[in-house]
Amino acid sequence: MNTGSDEPGEVAVASDKVKTDRQETGEAAARGLGSRAPEFIKSRRLLHLSWQVGVFVVGLAVVVAGIIMLPLPGPGWVVIFGGMAIWATEFVWAQLVLRWTKRKVTEAAQRALDPKVRRRNITLTVIGLVIIGVLAGIYLWKFGLVMPWKIKDQ
Known about the structure:
- This protein is mainly alpha-helical.
- It is 60% helix and 0% strand.
- The protein contains five helices and no strands.
- It has helices spanning 39-42, 45-69, 76-88, 92-112, 115-143.
- Helix 2 (45-69) packs antiparallel against helix 3 (76-88) and helix 3 crosses helix 4.
- Residues 1-6 and 13-30 have low confidence and may be disordered.
């Protein structure tokens, strides 16, 4: 997946064609950076401005919901990136942030698939599980297994 240039000084310029490593067909190949609003909206300045405000407000609501979900149960990061994707339909800065994020995630996935890294991760996981098992065994040996619903009132 081509998620952006690796060269420093990448400049955000709206273009009509996107050049990628693989051939894409359809409308996705014709999209560059910039607004994804329909042409009749982009042709009217006031309508386009109100469209951008609406996209920003909806994206902000989704990002705020994701931030709230970080400490609470829920897919916080997924929702935050969903809000960024909503913003990326209209704003170049959000498109560049998503492009950078995709590139970094792809690089991290490639590094994680490296055999040396996988062996190290498996070794550290096994060591961690052994330590947790030993600590749980010591706790059970010292205090026994008492379920919370069987604790007598004191």
